[in-house]
Write a structure and sequence with these properties.
Mean pLDDT: 76
Low-confidence stretches: none
Order of helices and strands: HHH
Shape: elongated
Number of strands: 0
Helix content: 40-55%
Strand content: under 5%
Structural class: mainly alpha
Length: about 80
C-alpha cells in the first residue's frame, strides 16, 4: 500500500505561484497604447484636482504662488 502525501499539488505550490506573478510566460509587458494614454490623463487630472483642493495650504508653505511680489502687480 502506498501512502499519499497530504502536501499541496504541484500546480498550487507557492514557488510556482510566485514565479507566475513575477515573470509572465507569454505576452508580458505589452499594453495597449490607449490604456497608457488613459492612465496618464487620469493621473494628470488627479494631480490637478489635488493641487486645487490644497492650494491654500501649498501657498501657506510657499510651494504654490506667482513668485512676484504683490506690490509690483497692477491693480
Amino acid at each position: 500500500m502506498q501512502i499519499q502525501s497530504k502536501a499541496l499539488p504541484q500546480s498550487s505550490s507557492p514557488r510556482r505561484s510566485f514565479r507566475s506573478l513575477t515573470a509572465p510566460e507569454q505576452g508580458g509587458g505589452t499594453y495597449h497604447p490607449l490604456l497608457v494614454v488613459s492612465v496618464v490623463v487620469l493621473l494628470t487630472l488627479f494631480a490637478i484636482v489635488e493641487i486645487d483642493l490644497h492650494s491654500a495650504q501649498l501657498q501657506a508653505i510657499g510651494l504654490l504662488g506667482s513668485g512676484i511680489n504683490p506690490v509690483f502687480l497692477s491693480p
